[in-house]
Amino acid sequence: MKEFIYSRNAVYETLRAGRRDVFRLQVADGVQEKGRLAEILQLAERRKIPILRAPRLGMDKIHPAHQGVILEASGYPYRNLDDILDLAGERGQPPFVLVLDTLQDPQNLGTLLRTAEAVGVHGILLPLARTAMVTPAVVNASSGAVEHLLVAQNNLSQAIALLREADVWTVGLDEGLESRHPSEVRWDGGLALVVGAEGEGIRPLVKSKCDFLLRLPMEGRVESLNASVAGSVALYLAYLARHK
After folding, report:
1. 102 and 68 inside one domain
2. Mapping DSSP to helix (H, G, I), strand (E, B) and coil, where does residue 73 land?
3. CA 18, CA 29: separation in Å to the nearest integer?
4. Residues 8 and 34 in one domain
5. Axis-axis angle for helices 156-165, 81-90 (nearest 10)
6. Are residues 143 and 188 in the same domain?
C-alpha cells in the first residue's frame, strides 16, 4: 500500500533509513533547493528515485504541512519481537523495549517514538487493536525517528511473558498508590517500559503482567503528565540509570 510521507525531516529520515520501497519524490515548484531539501534531493538522485516538480496547490491537497516535499513510498515495515531481541544481542546490550498500550493520539505516539530512538531503545511493541499505527502523521510527529526503529504488533500480555523468559523486567508507568518511586525500581539488565493510553492508563490485564509499577514524583499542582511527557521522562530515567 502506498503512503505519502510529508515534511522535510520525515522525508529525509525515510530516505536515509532506506527501509521502504520509494516510488516518487514530489517537490513544490519554485521552492528553494537548499539545506535539508538539498540533502533530500541528493539522496533521491543517489537512489535513482523519480523526482516530480509539482504545483504547490496539488501537494496541499495531499497534506497542507508538506513543507515543499512529499515522498510516495510503501507502507511502514513492521517487525516482530524476535527482531527486537536480536538487535539487542547484536549490540551486546541488555534489551531495552518500549511497550505502548492502546495509545490513541498520533502526536503522542510520534513524540514517544522520537524519544525512544534518542535513548537507544531497541524496539517498540504496539497492541494488535485499539492503537494508533505508524502512519505518515506519526512519522512526521517523530521527525522521522520511527524510520530507524523496530516496531512490532503483539498481544501485549503474551509479549510480556516472552520478555520475562528472555530475562527482561517489565515496568509499568502508573500513578496508583501501589506504584514505586524511581529509586525503588530495578533499571539494570533487560527492561521493558509500559506506557498506557491517554487518560485510561495501562489496561488491567497488561498491568497485572508487569513486574513493577512506577510513579513519577511531582511537586506541582497538576495531577499528572500526559502520556508522551511521562513516558519520555521515564525513558530518560531508564537511560541515565543504564549508562552510569
Report:
1. no
2. strand
3. 26
4. yes
5. 30
6. yes
150: closest CA among 187, 170, 125? 125
Query: Residue 236 corresponds to which amino acid?
Result: Y
Distance in angstroms (rounded) separating the CA atoms of residues 81 and 67: 35
Last residue of a domain, one of 74, 107, 125: 74
Percent of the chain with pLDDT over 90: 80
Window from 21-35, 115-129, 132-146, 215-229 with minimum mean pLDDT? 215-229
- Residue type at position 28: A
Residue 109 in grid coordinates: 505516539
Residue type, 120: G
- Find where cell 526503529 sits: 149
The answer to whether residues 149 and 123 touch, using CB atoms and an 8 Å cutoff, is yes
Give mean pLDDT, residues 167-182.
84
Question: Which CATH number characterizes residue 58's domain?
Answer: 3.30.1330.30
Alpha helices in 47-185 (DSSP H): 56-62, 81-90, 106-118, 136-141, 156-165
One domain for residues 97 and 49: no
- On whether the CB atoms of residues 126 and 133 are closer than 8 A, the answer is yes
- 88 and 58 housed in the same domain: no
Domain containing 228 equals 81-242
Query: Do 85 and 67 share a structural domain?
Result: no
pLDDT score at 183: 79
Co-location of 42 and 160 in the same domain:
no
Please give the sequence-ordered ranges of beta strands (E in DSSP) within the chain, or none if there are none: 2-6, 22-28, 51-54, 69-74, 96-100, 123-126, 151-153, 168-173, 190-195, 212-214
Q: What is the pLDDT of residues 218-240, one digit of tens each?
A: 777 676 778 899 999 999 999 99
Give yes or no: residues 89 and 67 share one domain. Answer: no
Nearest to 138 by CA among 10, 238, 46: 10
